[in-house]
């Protein structure tokens, strides 16, 4: 009987080896007619859950029922399935050695690594530990065991999150391929064989609990222990310590967000005290805001004052320089006065006569001006010639 998968389900989400495994496990069991609805239900819900309607005494009730899913790795598109929802493998359980695991195993035979814990208030330290476990070998299938509330409260203490919340938180971690609910506190050979575990990943610090110096000692002796490193500075105990240390702050925070005193298990008097503290803190915050604003204002004034002083100094230096350049001992005004004084002296002082007249070779006689009605002028007299031969007296001339 042929089986056409191209029109029934998007097989692109599965590898070739996963397809063969699905066909091998379900193809010969007469369940091929149910594989598509089972896989589609798994794809939509992530855990193979289906709402079942039951009619009891005339009332219709809805209940969750779980279907077995084919064993596969979902990757990053869906939450990791729970181990009790997966189809049990029929192949014999044969562990791989550490050398084979580091060298790399076939695609259809990943190295099955198990990591367990409480995972209360799931944080980055948990995620980093699981990432290290996932990256131990080239081809790894990571199985994470989460202990139940009863077991945890008995051996470790009270938790903040209940077991269902912790199961769900771990299943949504991107490195997890499978989640084991109600995991045992101490790993037994039967448990390791049931889940076909090759190696157990945990930090190398001895875990003292349940009357044992190290609950992983027998795993280490069997050569199945793969150590990881803790993330310093983050743990569930550290987070709880912060909450306990700042208890009043968180109570007031939740009261502001609408939680009642009854929900927070706070008495009436403490509730009023927290409200009063809140009002006092608001007043203090207003005072701090005013102080900050006043400091900013004073700082701005100081900065502007410094700028003004610097500008004033620059302008004063420029003014003094210009003043000295104009009125100083060697300033422009002195040169202008000297130049003006020289010009004034030249203007009011006559020119000096030359010390000697120029000598002329021939000197023309000066013309004689005569009145028109007189033959001789009483005002002008002819020049006297001082030659020795021609000398006449005044009487002769008359």
Automatic annotation (TrEMBL):
EC number: 2.7.7.15
Pathway stated in the Swiss-Prot or TrEMBL entry: Phospholipid metabolism; phosphatidylcholine biosynthesis; phosphatidylcholine from phosphocholine: step 1/2; Lipid metabolism
GO CC, one annotated term: endoplasmic reticulum
Span of domain Cytidyltransferase-like: 114-242
A molecular function GO annotation: phosphatidylcholine binding
Region feature Disordered, mapped onto this chain: 347-398
Sequence ranges of Low complexity compositional bias: 349-358, 365-386
Record keywords, A-Z: Lipid biosynthesis, Lipid metabolism, Nucleotidyltransferase, Phospholipid biosynthesis, Phospholipid metabolism, Transferase
InterPro entries xrefs: CCT, Cyt_trans-like, Pcy1-like, Rossmann-like_a/b/a_fold
Catalytic activity: phosphocholine + CTP + H(+) = CDP-choline + diphosphate
Role this protein plays: Catalyzes the key rate-limiting step in the CDP-choline pathway for phosphatidylcholine biosynthesis.
Protein name, entry field: choline-phosphate cytidylyltransferase
């Amino acid at each position: 009987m042929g089986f056409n998968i191209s029109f029934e389900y998007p097989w692109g989400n599965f590898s070739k080896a996963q397809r063969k495994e699905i066909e091998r496990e379900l193809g010969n069991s007469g369940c091929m007619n149910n594989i598509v609805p089972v896989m589609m239900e798994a794809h939509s819900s992530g855990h193979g859950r289906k709402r079942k309607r039951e009619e009891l005494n005339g009332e219709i009730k809805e209940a969750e029922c779980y279907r077995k899913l084919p064993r596969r790795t979902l990757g990053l598109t869906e939450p990791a399935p729970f181990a009790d929802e997966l189809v049990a493998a029929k192949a014999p359980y044969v562990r791989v050695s550490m050398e084979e695991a580091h060298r790399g195993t076939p695609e259809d035979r990943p190295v099955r690594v198990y990591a367990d814990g409480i995972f209360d208030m799931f944080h980055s330290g948990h995620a980093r530990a699981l990432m290290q476990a996932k990256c131990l070998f080239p081809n790894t299938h990571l199985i994470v065991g989460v202990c139940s509330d009863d077991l945890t409260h008995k051996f470790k203490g009270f938790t903040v999150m209940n077991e269902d919340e912790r199961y769900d938180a771990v299943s949504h971690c991107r490195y997890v391929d499978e989640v084991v609910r109600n995991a045992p506190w101490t790993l037994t050979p039967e448990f390791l064989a049931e889940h076909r575990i090759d190696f157990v990943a945990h930090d190398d610090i001895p875990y003292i609990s349940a009357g044992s110096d190290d609950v992983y000692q027998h795993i280490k002796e069997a050569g199945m222990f793969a150590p990881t490193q803790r993330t310093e500075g983050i743990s569930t105990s550290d987070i709880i310590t912060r909450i306990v240390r700042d208890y009043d702050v968180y109570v007031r925070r939740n009261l502001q967000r609408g939680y009642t005193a009854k929900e927070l298990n706070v008495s009436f008097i403490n509730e009023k005290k927290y409200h009063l503290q809140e009002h006092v803190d608001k007043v203090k915050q207003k005072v701090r805001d005013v102080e900050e604003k006043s400091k900013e204002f004073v700082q701005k004034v100081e900065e502007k004052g410094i700028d003004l002083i610097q500008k004033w100094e620059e302008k004063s230096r420029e003014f003094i320089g210009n003043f000295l350049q104009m009125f100083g001992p060697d300033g422009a005004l002195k040169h202008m006065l000297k130049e003006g004084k020289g010009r004034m002296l030249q203007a009011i002082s006559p020119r000096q006569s030359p010390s000697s007249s120029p000598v002329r070779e021939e000197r023309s006689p000066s013309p004689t001006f005569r009145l028109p009605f007189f033959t001789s002028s009483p005002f002008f007299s002819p020049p006297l010639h001082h030659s020795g031969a021609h000398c006449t007296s005044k009487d002769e001339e008359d």
